[in-house]
Amino acid sequence: MSRLFTFLLIGFLAASSAVAQNLTALARVDAANSHLVDDSAEVHLRLRLSQPVPFRVFTLDDPRRLVLDFSEVDWSGLSTDDFDQSAAIERVAVGAIQPGWSRMVATLSASYAVTSAAMSTEGLAELNLILTATSEDEFAAHAGAPETSAFSLPKAEIVTAPRPRQTGDRPVRIALDPGHGGIDPGAERGGIVEADLMLSFARELREVLLRAGFEVILTREADIFVPLEARQSIARAKGADAFISLHADTVAEGRAHGATIYTLSDEASDIASEVLAERHDRGDLLAGVDLSQQDDAVANVLMDLVRTETEPRTDRLANALVDGLRKNVGGLHKRPRLEAGFSVLKAADIPSVLIELGFMSSTQDLANLRSAEWRAKAALGIRDALLDWAIADAAEAALLRQ
Description:
Strand order of the largest sheet: 14-11-15-18-16-17
Number of strands: 18
CATH superfamily of the largest domain: Zn-dependent exopeptidases
Shape: elongated
CATH architecture of the largest domain: 3-Layer(aba) Sandwich
Strand content: 25-35%
Number of helices: 9
Distance between the termini: 64 Å
Number of domains: 2
Radius of gyration: 23 Å
CATH class of the largest domain: Alpha Beta
Structural class: alpha/beta
Mean pLDDT: 81
C-alpha cells in the first residue's frame, strides 16, 4: 500500500464542505453495528460512528500492527474482545493517543496489506477497511507511520544546563508519573482501570505534597498516552529533583499483595519483576512507539558515569519510601524493595523509583486502592519519605560542595 494513500484518507474528508463543520466533534462508536469479519481470503473491519471524522491508517512492523487514528472517537461501550475472534487479529487496543486524537491498534498474526479503506459520510458514518494477505517483504516495505502535521515529531528543545542539585535552599520539585493512560489502560479488574486509578491518586498525592512545601509536576493530567521516554523528558525539562512512577498491576491471584518500591537494574530481582517490567514497556508498542532499540553506546557510557552519583541517592529514596509507607499503611509486599529494567526509570540524572501501590489481582489490595482513607494514608507515607529524603539529600549535597 502506498503511503500516499494515508494522506488521502485525511484529505478527502476535509474536501467535502458538507461535512467539514463536523470534523472536530467527538464521534461515538456504535458497537452493535461494528464488526470484524475474517473469511480467510480477506479481513473486513466495519466501524460504525455517529459522524464522520478525519482518520488515517498505516501499518507497523516488528511486531506487525495495523494502526487507525481518528480525530477523535469515544471508545466507551466498545469491547475489544469482539474484535479478537479473527485468526488474523491477535489483539486489539483502543484509547487516546494525544489530545484530540484516538487510536485503534490491531496486532496482526501475519502480513496483511490494507487494500481498501473508506469512510461513508451519509447519515451515520461507517469506516470500511479491507486487509489482504501479502508477503513479509511487501509488508515491511510499506510499514511505517507517515509524517503529517498533526503527528509530526516536536521541534527539538533547546538544551539548558541541568538544574543544580538541591541543598535545602529552595523547594524540592517532585515529578509524579501516573502509569499508563490513553490507549494503554494498564491493569483492569472489576471495572477499575489502573490508568484512571493512578491519575486520581497522583492528583491526591500532589495536593498532599504541595501542602508540605514541595513543588509538583505530573507527567500527564488526563487519560492520554505518554511514551515512556517522554515521561522522563518531561521531568527533566521541568527540573525535577526526583521522579516517582505510580502503578497498581495484576499478577496471578494470591501470588502477590502489598506495596513494592522498584529501582532500575538490568537484571530483575525475580521472574515476577521481569514480567512486570515487560508488561509496562509493552504500552509503547501498543501505541505504535518503540524506542527500546535506540540506545547509543557512547551515551550509555556517559549515563553510567552519571549514575554513579544518582544511584545511591535513588536507593536512599526507595528505602525512605519503604519506611514511610510501612509506618502509614502497614503491610507491604514480602519483598518491598525490588529491581527491574523499567524503561521509565532510565533517566541517569534524576533519582527515579516506581511504586506498585498494590496489586489489583489481590482482593485486599484492590479494596485498599479504592479506599479514600487508605490512599490518604499512603500519600502521607510518601510525603514523610520525601521530607526525610530531601533533608538527607541536601545535607549530602552541601558536604560535596565544600
